[in-house]
User: Fold this.
Amino acid sequence: MAEGARLLLIDDGEAYAKAIRKRLGEHTLLDPLGDAAHRLPDGPAALDWLAANPAAADVVLLDMRFDVPAERLLPLPEATTLRRQRRFQGVAILRALRERWPGLPVVVLTAVEDLALVDAGDEVAGLSLTYVLDSDDLDTLRIRIQTALIEAQRGGEEGAILWGRDPAMTEVRRRLRMMARGRMPVILEGETGTGKSYLAERLLHAASGRKGAFVVLDLSTVPTDLIPAHLFGARRGAYTGAVADRQGVFELADGGTLFIDEIQNVPLEVQKQLLLVLQDRKVRPLGASKEVPVDVKVVAASNAPLAQAVRAGRFRPDLYMRLSPATRVVLPPLRTRPEDLAFLAQRFVGQALADPDLADLRDEVARGLGLGGDAPVHLQLGREPDGQARGLLLMVPAPAWKRLLRHPWPGNLRELAMVVRNIVTFTLVAAVEALSAGAPLRSNRLQVDAGLIDELLAGAMVLPDPPEAEEGDDPEAFKVRVEPQRTLNAVSTSVERQYFLALYRQVDGDFGAMAERLLGDRGRGRAIRLRLNQLGLKVRDLKDGG
Amino acid sequence: MERDELMDVLLDLKHDLGKHLPRPVRWLPPDASADDLRAALRQALERTHGGRSAAALWADAEGELASVAQRPAFQALALAVQRALAWGARLDDPDAALDRAAVEADLLAVGPAVAALMDAVAHG
Assistant:
């Protein structure tokens, strides 16, 4: 697709449009407004057009400075004057594009050094599928477009990766991209929820060009004595219970990538075998007489430094060396990069709204406010918006924002995503209920309950999985596990969540049946869906068995 | 003038002169004719940005930058701008030869000179 790409130019001036049509004839510069200008003149026009034509462009070319009326500017909080709002308007537009169309490549028509003037250089450099032109010449632009097209094709999923603005994450991204090439193993270290498996699949595997499968083996979920069979496979009868041949993960990942999570859990006596597989690229299933050649890129993950396990004698030094510790990548915990919190939280709003249930809620509130459907939703964290803000604003009070900043985030990105999802859900549900009750909402600012945030931070990481019903139990009764929480409200939420989950499973996801059981009215399934959302239970995940 | 205001003036200058002054020549195809080069240079100097000439844009900025006029970085910038503007004298002389590489180098030199003054202002 390097040739004949459809380019969408967002630029208030005509110079680029003319030059691109004249000099980059191998591509098609779209004429989005049909006025022969071949460009969209500002952020709002671009967002509107892309919302209506989400698949019409292959690459966006985005100018940085927009000398347009103030009412046509998207908010850029760090720009303190109107002059700077205009000068760096491209940053605001880029953020909106990344949030709503993360897989759409964007070439920013400016220099990185200029972005540094609004502290946006690292942010932009860390964004997926985002390329800075740097040099104002058309040959460089041609190369950037080509790179964007190739990377978008090769690793389109990377567009969904949220890197943040922290320089440490920029370095992680750079290293991972380098290590995606070839067959060299990679060690990924990081606390739970930092995105190890996600990055392994979406970046290391996606960008590797390997045609085989991405296979995951989570050793925290495999009984120790079954680990060899899971790793290397087993022939029928190789051990008690081996009633059929079983392929190991090395064979399953042949030609692809094997992600071994919690690799420190491999028993010492199995580590030697693992070392031999890595060295010889051959695997011998348990009970087999012959070795099977395998071509696998191994990504080994650990939630603690593997070197510690080596020093403690729990991990073989030769295996550690074979895993190439020089290529070790450490994903920083969220608490060490608080400056990313606002950026990531806003992106998680976008992810949450990809859920059709939440999008429906958003549209219902937006219509109630006369904003029309598909309104953007922004988290306004601890301060008033600068200037006129479009869409729905979820106003997080300043003390609650401070609390979020101080929170240690033991569950890292996963925890933040859950907290944000709940903030969005509860706030939208409250607004829907207010509208249903006839309360007029006159402002696009929806107040987030500070108490809710306290509850979420206290309870998000300690909600237990629901216990399975036991044989012989009353079929309509469920056991719930009550564990100490910080507040009674968190205890209630935990209990209610377990109950809803168990009931959902019992009735095979039939909301009508749930409504009948709980409300005596089969027609109130929507109320059940809303409540599930409030409890942070994503229907899509439930359907997938999550 | 406060430092932030100075930086704003310099940012505008970097955009209006640093970026737009060399652009018409820079964006010419490699096999552009002498007439194309002359037309591009005229556009660069006379319709630099927002319909204004490079000389007018510089005159405005020069006035706003009076407080840093004694700095070596400003004087280097002024020299770079004058070298670029000097090509205008050859525009109306059809016999005057235009060396594309030399024209481009002079026009391109303005941007880094603005950046150097920005750096000097930013660091005291």
